[in-house]
Design goal:
Length: 89
């Protein structure tokens, strides 16, 4: 799943859990069972979210590093050209 899909699934499951939890507090045993099973599923979704968010963050960092390296290379080339022009004079 993509990060957006996981987030949407988590939001949907939280709303379902909330409504079932209210029913369970009123004494509905079936709702209490759904809360217990869905809380386990939610925990698994939370783990997936952590993995995906970390990998997404790493991708952003890699892109930023590439951009910085590219900018640094351009600066070095420009500096070398400037030095060559000064030494020719």
């Amino acid at each position: 799943m993509a990060l957006k899909d996981t987030t949407a699934s988590m939001e949907k499951m939280l709303s379902t859990l909330g409504s079932d939890l209210k029913k369970a507090m009123k004494g509905n045993k079936a709702a209490a069972q759904r809360v217990r099973t869905n809380s386990i599923k939610f925990g698994k979704l939370a783990k997936d979210y952590r993995k995906e968010s970390i990998s997404e963050g790493k991708k952003k960092v890699k892109k930023a590093v590439k951009k910085v390296k590219k900018t640094a290379k351009k600066a070095v080339k420009k500096a070398k050209k400037t030095v060559r022009k000064k030494t020719k004079r």
